[in-house]
Amino acid sequence: MEIEEKQKPVRLSSAHSRELGEELRRARRRARMSSEASAEAMQWSVGKLSKLETGHRGTSQWDIACLLGRYGADKAARERVMIMAAELDTGNFLRMHNGVPDDLAALSVHERQARGIAVYEPLTIPALAQTEDYALAMTGGPNPAGIRMRRQRELRMLGSLETVFYIHEAALGQTVDTPRVMRDQLLHLTLMGSWPKTQVRIIPQTSHFHPALRGPATLMTFAGPLQPLAYVETDTGVVFHDDPHVVAVYQHKMQYLDTVALDGEESRRTLARWASAYAQAA
Fold it and tell me: Is the pTM of this model over 0.85?
């Protein structure tokens, strides 16, 4: 059995190493193997496996391939994880998806650890604030919409997470599905604004253009020593950044949005006005 060197300092994890660890943890759970059984099969200490799954240490690609073999991982999972294991950890990485990113390991592992999440959307309601009907229209099916709803429930259960949703008023005027769906969505946002540790802030249509208003973004913050993580969704993938120089751009973006967004009460009045308009059209 391999013995961990207790005097060796714990390596500071990165977004990439935590994602890789999450993928390995998922593979182990799918195989229904305990940490103890998995470590014994590899002739490792449980500590080594635990640090690998939390992103606090690395190992060779050969070890990872052997571990996936022990778990009986399918071909798609093996290929996905081995590509990750071979990547250079540059602080910026792309993860492809099939139109709905909610189940990406890089999202779930970091949302569970986050202390704060700030989201900006210029044209749609943020995924973490969508009603099920709105999500169904956005994702195109009950299964991906259900995954999105589960993702929301899991985050609400954390209790300690602080969230800020910056939503451009243009998104309120974009009719997704039907006026009834939009009415219910805007009423839901109004309710969310009263939840503990949750802010819904509307960027008014009258705001002058600024580059920060152009594209969507999400910024996660964590308890120390973990560094902030920013990400941007596209139609087919999600780009993650924990490079400090890149993250600083997103931090400045959120700071600007805070200065131009309506406060909580003004945002609620704006949401109520749009909800009333949709109610009349329903």
Answer: yes
Q: Which stretches of 114-174 are DSSP H helices?
A: 132-139, 142-158, 169-172
Q: How far is CA 196 from CA 33, 97, 159, 200, 276, in A?
A: 38, 32, 9, 11, 25
Burial of 202 (0-12, 13-18, 19+ CB in 10 A): buried
pLDDT tier at 3, thresholds 50, 70, 90: very low
Residue count of the chain, please give it.
282
Residue whose C-alpha is closest to residue 119's, from 165, 167, 170: 165
Tell me the mean pLDDT in the region 254-279: 98
Average pLDDT over residues 146-174: 95
Q: Which residues contact 227 (CB under 8 A, 6 or more apart)?
A: 242, 244, 247
How confident is residue 98, by pLDDT bands cut at 50, 70 and 90?
confident
Q: Is the pLDDT of residue 258 over 80?
A: yes
Please list the residues that pair with 167 across neighbouring strands. 121, 202
Could you give the maximum distance between any two Cα atoms of the chain, in Å? 70
One-letter amino acid for residue 255 of the chain: Q
* Residue 19 vs residues 58, 76, 97, 100: alpha-carbon distances, Å: 12, 16, 15, 18
